[in-house]
Amino acid sequence: xxxxxxxxxxxxxxxxxxxxxxxxxxxxxxxxxxxxxxxxxxxxxxxxxxxxxxxxxxxxxxxxxxxxxxxxxxxxxxxxxxxxxxxxxxxxxxxxxxxxxxxxxxxxxxxxxxxxxxxxxxxxxxxxxxxxxxxxxxxxxxxxxxxxxxxxxxxxxxxxxxxxxxxxxxxxxxxxxxxxxxxxxxxxxxxxxxxxxxxxxxxxxxxxxxxxxxxxxxxxxxxxxxxxxxxxxxxxxxxxxxxxxxxxxxxxxxxxxxxxxxxxxxxxxxxxxxxxxxxxxxxxxxxxxxxxxxxxxxxxxxxxxxxxxxxxxxxxxxxxxxxxxxxxxxxxxxxxxxxxxxxxxxxxxxxxxxxxxxxxxxxxxxxxxxxxxxxxxxxxxxxxxxxxxxxxxxxxxxxxxxxxxxxxxxxxxxxxxxxxxxxxxxxxxxxxxxxxxxxxxxxxxxxxxxxxxxxxxxxxxxxxxxxxxxxxxxxxxxxxxxxxxxxxxxxxxx
Length: 494
Prior knowledge:
With about 500 residues, this protein is an alpha/beta fold. The chain contains 18 helices and 16 strands. The protein has an 8-stranded mixed beta sheet, with helices on both faces. The protein has a 6-stranded mixed beta sheet with strand order 2-1-3-4-5-6, sandwiched between helices. Strands 14-15 form a two-stranded antiparallel sheet.
């Protein structure tokens, strides 16, 4: 049985780093004082560890060292990348290996904006470390983004110091156990103090680390409520992806992606782009999977998660993993990053659930409170029809069964075009369900092939996803790139 990890104080961690004669590096901190290196100075024994500490606080001086930021934002990922690269290279240039053959170099950096005086701008920051685990190895790099929740700048500065110490200590002592490293970032900290919403680990010691799984861990362990990763599998910070975008989201299990999923996104996207206040060149499409969906059959199956992610990434889609079971929470999240028109594609059966009052029993204002949050934003629900298998009836905005008590509210939203029908759907795909395709895959029944687009078929066969065990991948390795094939299919459906 594994012993519970002993949580050291910030002073103990800093002292252990200082007492390691082979650890040697620089600290570069911008925006919240020098809160991290302060712990190392106070712990004692810092003279052999700290090569240099710098706080290029003035923007002009910072630009002279690290270069200008083209977007004018200095608390950003590109800034932390430049800081780490510059400071680490300086160590390599100035300290020769001849004199220090066993030294493990590192560069720690952060760029932070604490809460402003009027409390209209919440604090956040980027933290990173570039470090060696042996003197003869190429460096690794860990970069993370944190949002501060405390309502006092001084408290946020103190949290900055603790998080920085945890990151440095974790990099050197937990790099072989990335999940433990991740959890150690909250040592001596609480979730209501800060939220870590993005982390990326790269380098020779992290070659076997799938950063998408780290994103999943962030949500699973309550470190954040939503994470995003791009088609290349890279974890992204939400603000960088969603800032001032027209956001269009589709929620599903995508287990696997079926022809109906592609029809929904293709027809929904075409319709959304034609909406007033939507810039067709500024739309960000997100495929969302909820934590509740991932754990529907018990504990989260990481391989099952990666199978879904592999398909979505392979067809060029951006993936959102969230803990927002309720849609109004999802829209609230989007509203942090954009004031532009947003859209959510959903099936009529899902819409019925949204109008179920039991869904909102934990809210003082019930369904009206939730809908106030939903529709006080510039939101449109794009409704994809659903066919009742028993009666054969087609549900759309005019026929979806809503409880009589809520029908006036529903009619109001339809009349004011907050709920819009996707009319030009493909009727031939309405009877396709992901769960049926998945069952066929597991039973080695080839019927699933006709339920998914050909490019998804090839991805599943080529990578043996979702338990596929066919001995012959047929034409899985042939044809155009899946991402290009998916983009072409969506364009054609448009």
